[in-house]
Amino acid sequence: MNWDALPFNRATLEGYLASLYQAQVRVIAVRELKNEQDEGRLKEFGYGIPLLIEFTLDGKKERAVFHTMSADGFGHERRSDRARNLILDYDTFNKLHRHVRAVDVGAFTSKGKLLSLGETGEFFLLSDYAPGRIYVKDLERIAGSGELDLVDEKRTRLLADFLAEVHGLKKPDAMLYRRRIRDLLGHGEGVMGILDSYPADFSLAPSDRLEAIERSCVAWRWRIKGFSHRLSQIHGDFHPWNILFEGEDEFTLLDRSRGEWGEPADDVSAMTINYILFSVRQHGMLTGPFRELYDLFWKHYLTATQDQDILDVIQPFYAWRALVVASPMWYPDLAPSVREALFRFIENVLTTDRFAPKQVNDYLM
């Protein structure tokens, strides 16, 4: 094996194995295992070529297999996807009788070292603290007063223009776009996961109504999954609880999720569904100050992006976001009339070929 072709050198590998086994280690050879185990097999595709490592452990010859995963289109596009699968392997291999034993799971450091994770438990994230006031407080104030301040319009324009700038960065990756549209439906936090969280005895949305929504969303997946030219940088959960304002125009984002790349309609629907929700709670329709903010957001976003095609793909994203805000689990205090309006919005939007921002009230009827 050519060591230059490997992500580690001999000394690094020997140091890692010595630390793992708490013994003296000398690496004899490293080679691809593919040639030994794949001979005569019909399966051509795999998720990564394992390496056979031959070494001595306190003078005794041993062998181990080093596994990695490749970034393919089968749910392994992100580093976190690949980490998840390898950690799952480590957690499950040794629990099944006759299965090959997992010795450790680890990661490459930024300096090319091998870091053992085998003794770890749950993972954690440490972030900076950001001061500020969450944007939803603005919406609550507007709902209470029924009026807009000048800062309200300013912030709406800022958020729309910010998204337009973020979405301007594109990525040519058809498989990843299909993954994102697939996740919109099938992920545990997507349409199907939210539908499964609805109570079985929820009279407003019995199972046949939820099933019809799911079927419509599946049809939309087949309709838009080929629009890979739209793959863009996104936030992934751009709603008023994830934005902190300090002063009139300084804001910080929280909890970016679901990956770096996706469909711009994800972010636009996540924000604008809240203008709809806050208005419907009070008036049963989109009107007054929230109508002004909704129209202002759409106007600035479409002017900045010139992305009229978003109106042809946003329907299942609106359905997903509306399913979240209509959920008795996520929003337990909504009146039944508000939930019913949101369900009518979902069903009407999913039957609309081209979404018309000006016709929101028609979709709520």
Summarize the structure.
Helices cover 45% and strands 12% of the residues.
Name its key features.
365 residues, alpha+beta, 2 domains, three-stranded antiparallel β-sheet, 13 helices, elongated
What does this structure look like?
45% of the residues lie in helices and 12% in strands. It is of the alpha+beta class. It folds into 2 domains: 3-116; 133-364, Aminoglycoside 3'-phosphotransferase, Chain: A, domain 2. It has a 3-stranded antiparallel β-sheet with strand order 1-2-3. The N and C termini lie far apart (68 Å). Residues 37-45 have low confidence and may be disordered.
Helices and strands in order, then pairings?
Elements: H1 10-21, E1 25-32, H2 34-37, E2 51-57, E3 60-66, H3 79-92, E4 106-108, E5 114-116, E6 133-134, H4 136-145, H5 150-167, H6 174-186, H7 191-197, H8 207-224, E7 232-233, E8 243-246, E9 250-253, E10 261-262, H9 264-283, H10 288-305, H11 315-325, H12 336-350, H13 360-364
Antiparallel strand pairs: 1-2, 2-3, 4-5, 6-8, 7-10, 8-9
